[in-house]
Amino acid sequence: MRWIKWIKNRFIPSKPESVVGLSWESADFGGAETGSKTVLEVEDLSVSFVQYEKGLQQKQMKVISSLDIAINRGEILAVVGSSGSGKSLLAHAILGILPENASVTGSIKYNGKELTLQRQAMLRGNEIALVPQSVNYLDPLMQVGAQVRTGIKNGDALAVQREVFDRYQLKPEVDRFYPFQLSGGMARRILISTAIVSDAQLVIADEPTPGLDPEVVEETLGYFREMSARGCAVMLITHDIETALKIADKVAVFYAGTTVEVAPIENFSGDGEALRHPYSKALWRALPQNGFMPIPGAQPMPNNLPEGCLFAPRCSMATSECSIKQPKVRKLRDGMVRCGHAT
């Protein structure tokens, strides 16, 4: 039964029994009442995993390095990048659900206060909601309607749950289904419903739209926009830039476990001349409607990262200085970039 409890503690809102000395009802969550404009601030975040090779020899494999992002109240930040760039790991680090062999350094703040493991346990599934990629986050032994209702704090929980299901074209009998009875698209809608019905101040949507019909995709994106209009901060993790640009205010571009650029959506136009980082420009120009110009090479694996700038081996602007050390992030033209050559 331990694995079932593990899933529920990480997705289904509950009163964390492990938080000693704090009352659930009176605990300071650092929520909307603080008046802070910045809801989430991640600075110089690095995540490493302990691995064993050649018997008992330990090795630290860094999968996220010097990552920086921030999301304001009422803002949608899209996090884009190829598979393996660290998008989902960032979400798990914020929620405090990384595996036990993970080591985290840097700072993660929610409403101006450091997100300790204790605060993560209290906020997870309440003020901070996750729309995960996998249906494995659903309790396999609990009907999906009941799982969605656990996140409803106000009003008639059953009526709210059924209204949301109706919006997502889920028939009334679906609320009595178990996760194994759901199709891929139905499971995705259930996962999104858990965030829609919550009172979360920060919603992390990890690839929320694959498997949905185009009309439902548009509707889902509209719900995230409604949430941001109510003051909720939304992090939309996706590999699809076009989807991101439909609702995002800013786009954070990830590469090989770090942030290379954060830019307003207006910069993603034309041939990408307004973008700052060479990878962001190349990613934009690789889209079919923008010339379909692929980038030579491939994103490096975490166990084979180059010295210095992580994009340097594929960058036409790279100099010998780029291979010495990773450039620091800096503000540039209403955005942020990690490149010494950006202007």
TrEMBL record:
Any single Gene Ontology cellular-component annotation: plasma membrane
Domain ABC transporter stretches: 40-281
One GO term of the biological process aspect: peptide transport
Keyword tags: ATP-binding, Cell membrane, Ion transport, Membrane, Nickel, Nickel transport, Nucleotide-binding, Translocase, Transport
Pfam families xrefs: ABC_tran, oligo_HPY
Origin superkingdom: Bacteria
UniProt topology in membrane: Peripheral membrane protein
Location of this chain's protein in the cell: Cell membrane
Molecular-function GO term, any one: ATP binding
Catalyzed reactions: Ni(2+)(out) + ATP + H2O = Ni(2+)(in) + ADP + phosphate + H(+)
Matching Gene3D superfamilies: P-loop containing nucleotide triphosphate hydrolases
Predominant subcellular localization, coarse grouping: membrane
Xref: InterPro entries: AAA+_ATPase, ABC_Ni/Peptide_Import, ABC_transporter-like_ATP-bd, ABC_transporter-like_CS, Oligopep_ABC_C, P-loop_NTPase
Protein EC: 7.2.2.11
PANTHER family per the UniProt record, alphabetical: NICKEL ABC TRANSPORTER, ATP-BINDING PROTEIN, OLIGOPEPTIDE TRANSPORT ATP-BINDING PROTEIN APPD
Oligomeric and partner information: The complex is composed of two ATP-binding proteins (NikD and NikE), two transmembrane proteins (NikB and NikC) and a solute-binding protein (NikA).
Family: Belongs to the ABC transporter superfamily.
Protein name: Nickel import system ATP-binding protein NikD
